[in-house]
Amino acid sequence: DRQTLVAVLQFLRRSNLRESEEILRREARLLGDDLGGGSVATVASSSPGVAAVAAVPPGKGGARAGAAGSLPGAGGRSLPAGPLGTWGALFGGGVVVEDQPDVSAVLSAYNQQGDPTLYEEYYSGLKHFIECSLDCHRAELSQLFYPLFVHMYLELVYNQHESEAKSFFERFHGDQECYYQDDLRVLSSLTKKEHMKGNETMLDFRTSKFVLRISRDSYQLLKRHLQEKQNNQIWNIVQEHLYIDIFDGMPRSKQQIDAMVGSLAGEAKREANKAKVFFGLLKEPEFDVPLDDEDEEGENEEGKPKKKKPKKDSAGSKSKKQDPNAPPQNRIPLPELKDSDKLDKVMNMKEAARRVRLGPECLPSICFYTFLNAYQGLTAVDITDDSSMIVGGFADSTVRVWSVTPKKLRSVKTAADLSLIDKESDDVLERIMDEKTASELKILYGHSGPVYGTSFSPDRNYLLSCSEDGTVRLWSLQTFTCLVGYKGHNYPVWDTQFSPYGYYFVSGGHDRVARLWATDHYQPLRIFAGHLADVTCTRFHPNSNYIATGSADRTVRLWDVLNGNCVRIFTGHKGPIHSLAFSPNGRFLATGATDGRVLLWDIGHGLMVGELKGHTDTIYALRFSRDGEILASGSMDNTVRLWDAVKAFEDLETDDFTTATGHINLPENSQDLLLGTYMTKSTPVIHLHFTRRNLLLAAGAYSSQ
């Protein structure tokens, strides 16, 4: 009886009675032949008759692979055409029966005792095969080297063949791509079974399937080779630990593959980037712009549209029509506009009317704020939207706020003094401020570890800071005191940012999770889990419905604030990601990492559309100009670079084929997009900000070495 057989085989495997299992399997194989493939057909519910087992033409097996959803080999893996027959034929029918239930517990997945002395032979055999295959397949199949190398090494270590593991590592680690060096360093320190239990990165590597994107032709070639060679050890690893995302069409070239790989878990599955994303902007609330008498034009009614117009021209971002790609206005609850916010918007529009239109012919001026003698160690910077205040987070756990304008920072008067004020007077907001407290700098004490992230609220009433001490603190900029300490992360918090509409904020940290908070809740509203390493930077989309997170697992994810789902996974960086910037129109995302590259992504199509090379060190700051014409990047190599964003995003090839297979064609040379490079004397750039009139502000701490 099939069910009993499955249960017994499972039990034998769990109890590690390999020999008995083999014997029974042989018996089952006879059984399989007697049944004439019936055992397989029962799994593939719609398999027509006997011959179907081995003769399902490619492309027709989609439904069947679905029917056998729990096959570790086929189910959960996108093998649209992997007819079950071929999987069965591989081990002679019986294996499909045996493997149908989910046998693989995480650690015991490494119990497959192949002959440890043959591992090097297996690997070098496959290596020889791939290196001798045609050029068009070689690039694709070479992606197998790294995940197979790691899993075979871990399998040897787990089964306590330490000397074999050591010689396997020494013989083949030099063949791996240069961007895996850091991972290999971690791997080389795992030499005993005990080491594996505590190492989170390796646990993740083992539990999450490494994703490879391979064309059907290359995949068939690999399968045929492994079948002929009876190389079960490697085939088992491919089935257990790799997710092969097969596409129809031309194999990808080495350049195309290199652009996309390099993250801890391989590439993103194509399915991961298919969900609809509302990347458009929300409609601005309408209210009249009162004209001041002191406006230099001094126009009357005709001036009104004029005032708004420049804002509208700019990438059409503030047009009155609803953007077809925008989320519904009430998709997530956003705070009501206060009167002060409306005033601020009016100011913003006036500033926008005087904004400089940037472009290759008209580059912005750059004003650099250098923190001198910052021996406390500057670790974070933010500048308010109206560029009136700048904040620094320091390694000595202080947060320091400066006024950048002649207007000094003042606190509100004490309660006793406030009770004496005439509440009805016109200048009540001025009167509540205590002149005696006026100063250019305020220091906020409260954290007990370095401050890694700071963010001003859009209305400039609050300031967020996050720290190594595991907390995010909310400070009042009226009283310069701490209002709340949010405790949700148990480990250092690397970044935090306010939503462009205020009220909500996001934080990300060493616990690999990003959290969404609201200022009036002690607990997080959403927890975004999925990264395989620290969440190093966080950013809100301009419409506040999405959050981007960059991680040390070398991927960028886009999360939906409404339901907490991950809607995009972008792979391609070769090092931890440290900066993110959305374009003002919400369509594109720029990301920067320790690999010195800026990558550009089309959010709607889920595709990489550009790569900007030029920096020689980690990129800590990225910012688009107010109209999105220019992208500024700031790096540890002490430079600010300006890139032509309009040109980078024009005439993109986002046809269906590219979207379906990820055959991206990046221009060979990004130098024609580079508009300028500006050196500092010896100051790494850690923050960039465009003022409302498109003056670029940069900030960093002077380093003497």
UniProtKB/TrEMBL annotation:
Biased composition (Basic and acidic residues): 312-323
SUPFAM superfamilies documented for this protein: Taf5 N-terminal domain-like, WD40 repeat-like
GO molecular function, one term: RNA polymerase II general transcription initiation factor activity
Each WD repeat, start to end: 371-412, 444-479, 486-517, 528-569, 570-603, 612-644
Chain ranges of the TFIID subunit TAF5 NTD2 domain: 114-242
Pfam families per record: TFIID_NTD2 (PF04494), WD40 (PF00400)
Positions with biased composition (Acidic residues): 289-300
InterPro entries per UniProt: LisH (IPR006594), TFIID_NTD2 (IPR007582), TFIID_NTD2_sf (IPR037264), WD40/YVTN_repeat-like_dom_sf (IPR015943), WD40_PAC1 (IPR020472), WD40_repeat_CS (IPR019775), WD40_repeat_dom_sf (IPR036322), WD40_rpt (IPR001680)
Keywords recorded for this protein, A-Z: Nucleus, Repeat, Transcription, Transcription regulation, WD repeat
Region of interest: Disordered: 289-341
Family, similarity comment: Belongs to the WD repeat TAF5 family.
Annotated function: The TFIID basal transcription factor complex plays a major role in the initiation of RNA polymerase II (Pol II)-dependent transcription. TFIID recognizes and binds promoters with or without a TATA box via its subunit TBP, a TATA-box-binding protein, and promotes assembly of the pre-initiation complex (PIC). The TFIID complex consists of TBP and TBP-associated factors (TAFs), including TAF1, TAF2, TAF3, TAF4, TAF5, TAF6, TAF7, TAF8, TAF9, TAF10, TAF11, TAF12 and TAF13. The TFIID complex structure can be divided into 3 modules TFIID-A, TFIID-B, and TFIID-C.
Protein name as it appears in the record: Transcription initiation factor TFIID subunit 5
This protein's encoding gene: Taf5
